[in-house]
Design brief:
Blueprint: E1 2-8, E2 18-27, H1 38-55, E3 59-68, E4 71-80, E5 85-94, E6 97-106, H2 113-121
Antiparallel strand pairs: 1-2, 2-6, 3-4, 4-5, 5-6
Length: about 120
């Protein structure tokens, strides 16, 4: 399995309250996640949200199933560094490719339109 990762850390100011934008995708072997394996994918999403929160020393604040452009996925948020920072993420599968889109912010600025716009703007062509 190969990881592909793309990150942008913009100038941090009141015009852009987010610290980092990250897109990762993993190509799993063909047939690992069949289209109709909704329970398996949901389990994978839940475990990934828990593991990612743990990896950054945080706690999972919320998680829920979500969809964008008719692609079912998962949305979650975790807080870390004594709850001073927030990471919000959207995950989904297209075939056996797993996408994990993340945005990081200070907690006091984490309810911003740019964060949601970024997570909702990802499109596949």
């Amino acid at each position: 399995m190969e990881l592909h990762s793309y990150m942008v850390a913009p100038q941090y100011d009141d015009q852009n309250p987010n610290l980092m934008y990250l897109i990762e995708y993993y190509d799993y072997p063909e047939g690992t996640f069949p289209e109709d394996s909704t329970a398996l994918k949901l389990f994978f999403y839940e475990q990934t949200a828990q593991a990612t929160s743990y990896e950054i020393g945080g706690t999972l604040s919320y998680s829920s199933e979500s969809s964008v452009d008719d692609i079912d996925g998962f949305l979650y948020r975790c807080q870390y560094k004594n709850d001073a920072y927030v990471m919000k993420s959207r995950m989904f599968f297209v075939g056996d490719r797993f996408y994990h889109i993340k945005v990081y912010s200070e907690k006091e600025f984490s309810l911003n339109d740019e964060m949601d716009w970024y997570l909702d703007s990802f499109k596949l062509k």
